[in-house]
Amino acid sequence: MKTLAKLPVTxxxxxxxxxxxxxxxxxxxxxxxxxxAVIVNEFGELGIDGEILKQCAIGCTExxxxxRVYELANGCLxxxxxxxxxxxxxxxxxxxxxxxxILIETxxxxxxxxxxxxxxxxxxxxxxxxxxxxxxxxSPAVAAGTFAxxxxxxxxxxxxxxxxxxxxxxxxxxxxQLASADLVILNKADLISPEDLARVRLEVAEELPPAxxxxxxxxxxxxxxxxxxxxxxxxxxxxSRHSHHDHHHGxxxxxxxxxxxxxxxxxxxxxLPQADESLLLDALTQxxxxxxxxxxxxxxxxxxxxxxLLIQGVGTRFDKHFDRAWRAEESRATHLVLIGxxxxxxxxxxxxxxxxxx
Length: 358
Fold this sequence. Notes:
By secondary structure, the protein is an alpha/beta fold. It is 34% helix and 23% strand.
């Protein structure tokens, strides 16, 4: 019986708004026939990220794609290894003859080191290897000294995590995401001057071993051959990578995670009829300002438009595009997920409906 080669796994990490999902979408759109499984780790009960990724061309039918997108509902993947991640990996290991690669997108606050250490477990180690940990950096935010596009919101998330040192500067969490990296992408490089980009490169390099490559990108557009096939075998050397939070996560067997939860985060799902695009975006922006909403994701039905409008918001910055035509059997409705802390679902939905007059 032929022995199967280890299944390569790419882990993508980075702060909220750095462009991780955009990078994954680019990778899937350019898969060139590779059979890729995706584990999406995102806050919220409804997996909008998963829905986005299912629209990508991954070299299989849509029905098959639905079986290859795995979503872990808990916000911190490094703390769901025993509960959710391990069963998913076991299933993928059983199917590895049908797969060429696995992509994992961590949440914006996940520390990658404990996740990489999970690949030292015998049942995973015998079948999979971490091809690379890719850390996506928001270059304009680092140039501004904030490290994240919305540092107050990232810091608010961090303060809800009992396993993190709440008094340390945000730079330490940024450094920890870099500490596990095998490849660093300076994303949004087109949005800052060459001089600022050079400063960002130097600052990032201070946190990295000399062998780690640093590349520049705009909207996550990097050739796939640069992103996969690195063969880093990260699980073999991750223990030697220093992290500011090593003492918080214990060893690779998941110890020390019992008290970790994200119950303070609220996820609100709102369904609306068709809505004018500009009115909807203005209303959502106002809600973000008033209620401190962290993320908004979803789809909108716009009157007289045959295409579905995909909306992704981080703070008051929204990206939108028409992703596909509405199907005949689908109800033309607007479906949004709003994520934040201490959100009043009834009040927010009422305000949104009033702004849209629906």
